[in-house]
Amino acid sequence: MTQTNRQILLASRPEGAASVDNFRLVETPLAPLEEGQVRVRNHFLSLDPYMRGRMNDSKSYAAPQPLGSVMIGGTAGEVVESRNAKFKTGDKVVGMFGWQEFGTSNGGDLHVVDTTHVPLSAYLGPVGMPGVTAWYGLNRIIEPKAGQTVVVSAASGAVGSVVGQLAKRAGCRAVGIAGGAQKCRYVVETLGFDACIDYKAGNLYQDLKAATPDGVDGYFENVGGEVLDAALARMNAFGRIALCGMIACYDAQPVPLRHPQLLLTQRLLVQGFIVSEHMDVWPQALAELGTLVAKHQLAYRETVAEGLEKAPGAFLGMLKGQNFGKQLVKLI
Ligand SMILES: NC(=O)c1ccc[n+]([C@@H]2O[C@H](COP(=O)([O-])OP(=O)(O)OC[C@H]3O[C@@H](n4cnc5c(N)ncnc54)[C@H](OP(=O)(O)O)[C@@H]3O)[C@@H](O)[C@H]2O)c1
Fold first, then answer.
1. Residues 6+ apart with CB under 8 A from 23
2. Å from CA of 244 to ligand 1 middle
3. pLDDT (tens digit per residue) in 229-277
4. Any idea what the CATH number is for the domain that residue 309 is in?
């Protein structure tokens, strides 16, 4: 009997905010495996903010996703059939199969992972791309020194939560910025940050000033817009800003900087980066992050939507901050 695969395609490009109408769910038959191929049943699908950029046909670091193709994305699953000597049925693997229940490939893009001490889903979070992103921006751009102050926005999220915990391990004062009292409480009480500012309440600049009495030496930017303005105004001379994401601008109009002169007067280093362009650090970063997770020394949280059909709604919700920690879709 022919098995079917369910897939979510990019049906149209958003005009303004993305909507569920930009996606289409289809069922396609699975062709028999050819020699050298592997078939994976995806268990988890990673939903990430960068996917919003790929939906547009605009200038970016990566080509737009073609219309009518399966939405791009990281996946973690299990080999269910193999005609490739490097993989056997039952192997747990991570790959980039995108928004679909089954993936088929020649194995070149798959990595077998050990789930003895690290849960499969964590390979899409703290021990995957978001974790390496945190590791790279913090260690290679901010280069934290003990006693310094590091601030990170979207602090309860997949990337931000790792940044602050690694900064604490480096002996820094770690201050988060997040949306809402519940997320801020989690950032301090569970993740161990020294403070967390709720940017949706109070006066962001005044609250950040109170939480950073010695100024800010390193700022890890996930958000942009007004949050960047407030952080910029607290930067110490020769501070470093790792520009990782600008999620406040993905769906909306760009927000101009209010005080760009601070870049000069504080002699700041501002470095944008794309983690997939730094594959040389991945083995070291993944080894360190995997050890921390296995030893329960790195906390993380997941928001899990159940079923492929929930992916578009969960993705759009994440862009509005409805996720609490790494946003995943559980497919089985
Ligand atoms: N450069 C790279 O290579 C790279 C790699 C991975 C990720 N990134 C970037 O890193 C950032 C974090 O990604 P993630 O996967 O860890 O996502 P995440 O933080 O788990 O989820 C996104 C969070 O962004 C916050 N947010 C959304 N709209 C916002 C707004 N208008 N103003 C302020 N905050 C807003 C929300 O948190 P609150 O509820 O706290 O507002 C939301 O939960 C994203 O900008 C992403 O594009 C970059």
1. 8, 9, 10, 11, 71, 311, 312
2. 9
3. 999 999 999 999 999 999 998 877 778 899 999 999 999 999 999 999 9
4. 3.90.180.10
Q: Scan for tokens 């928001």, then name that residue.
A: 303
Nearest CA to ligand 1 atom 18: 157
> Residue 323 CA: which ligand 1 atom is closest?
43
What the block records as the tokens of 144 is: 């934290």
**pLDDT exceeds 90 at position 36:** yes
Residue with tokens 């520009």: 243
CA distance 330 to 316: 16
If you measure from the C-alpha of residue 160 to the centroid of ligand 1, how many angstroms do you get, rounded to a whole number?
Answer: 8
203 within some domain? yes
Q: Which atom of ligand 1 is nearest to the CA of 155?
A: 40
Work out how many domains the chain is built from and give that number: 2
Q: What is the pLDDT of residues 211-225, one digit of tens each?
A: 999 999 999 999 999
Instruction: Answer whether residue 22 is part of any domain.
Output: yes
Task: Locate the ligand 1 atom nearest the alpha carbon of residue 52 and give its number.
Answer: 47
Kindly list the protein residues whose Cβ atom lies closer than 6 A to any atom of ligand 1: 48-50, 130, 133, 154, 156-160, 178-179, 183, 222-223, 227, 244-245, 247-248, 273-275, 318, 321, 323, 326
Question: How many angstroms separate the CA atoms of 103 and 94, rounded?
Answer: 11
User: DSSP for 275-293?
Assistant: GGG-GGGHHHHHHHHHHHH
* Statement to judge: residues 19 and 99 lie in one domain: yes
Which long-range contacts does 304-307 make (Cβ < 8 Å, 24+ apart)? 304/121, 304/328, 304/329, 304/330, 305/329, 305/330, 306/330, 307/331
Written as six digits, the tokens of 188 are 């301090």
Is residue 179 located within the same domain as residue 308?
A: no
Same-domain check for residues 212 and 164 = yes
Q: What domain range is 174 assigned to?
A: 129-276
Distances (CA, A) of 164 to 45, 56, 106, 256, 322: 25, 31, 38, 27, 21
State whether 133 and 272 are in the same domain: yes
